[in-house]
Amino acid sequence: MYDSNIQLANGYTIEERLAQFTEHECHMHDALEISVPLDNAMKYPLGNEMYCASPGDVFLLRPFEPHWNLIQEEGRPGRWVMLLFFPSIVGQVPNGYSLLTPFYTKDISPLIPAASPHAMNVHRLVLAAMEERRTALPGWELQHYSLLIQILVHIHRYFMEQMVENSVDTAAFSGIIEAVEYMMEHWSEEIDMDALIGRSQLKKTWFYTKFKAITGLTPLAFTVRLRLQYASQQLRATNHSVTDIALSCGFGSSSYFNKVFREFRGMTPGEFRKQL
């Protein structure tokens, strides 16, 4: 089920794809993904749910979630833009990790309707990014990256607005998001759970309950998945040893890293690297 052939030289890609009317086994990967249909309606099987998206809609595909996309009507292939990236791309952006919270929360639908001003802006920005790549004028790589950050800003703003409109428990949500952002920024470090709960300003039991409700994971499982994302990226992009990657990603030992990696991917880090 895993897609292990993802190669993102700069940590991200923005490219046009063609969707066919072909059933396909769902796959999942450790990258974050944004899908924007350009023409013809598309279907997105996501876990046990089926979403339908029209041109101009924006769809978020969260890491480690089984998914696929295909057109709704046979004989009418649909163009769409795929934005695929690793969380490390926002590491140097001020408060950059806050832009990724929509990809790690479950309370809001992953579908942003085309009528939303934020979806309109995302659609405009992805087309501009495609044009930058096509023309390849001087400095296009920097402009390309800038457009990606702007896209993430609009998605983040949309999700924050939805939290207010849906009357989500603002205090609890803000506390969990504060914790999530801290964990994303300090993913390789040993997390002091008492200090993390203190940052959220929530009672301990309520913190664990809301964390699981909002992210779908326990804090420990959330941390492990973050570390797996970074470790997988290093396995793809570097020649560092498995032991060095395990230690740099906070796993403590190569044996524990091997165990966790195998549980998620059905193979060891070394076997994964050989497949690439």
TrEMBL record:
Keywords: DNA-binding, Transcription, Transcription regulation
One MF term in the entry's GO annotations: DNA-binding transcription factor activity
Gene3D superfamilies: Homeodomain-like
One Pfam entry name: AraC_binding
Protein name: HTH araC/xylS-type domain-containing protein
PROSITE patterns the UniProt entry points to: HTH_ARAC_FAMILY_1, HTH_ARAC_FAMILY_2
Superkingdom assignment: Bacteria
HTH araC/xylS-type domain residues: 177-275
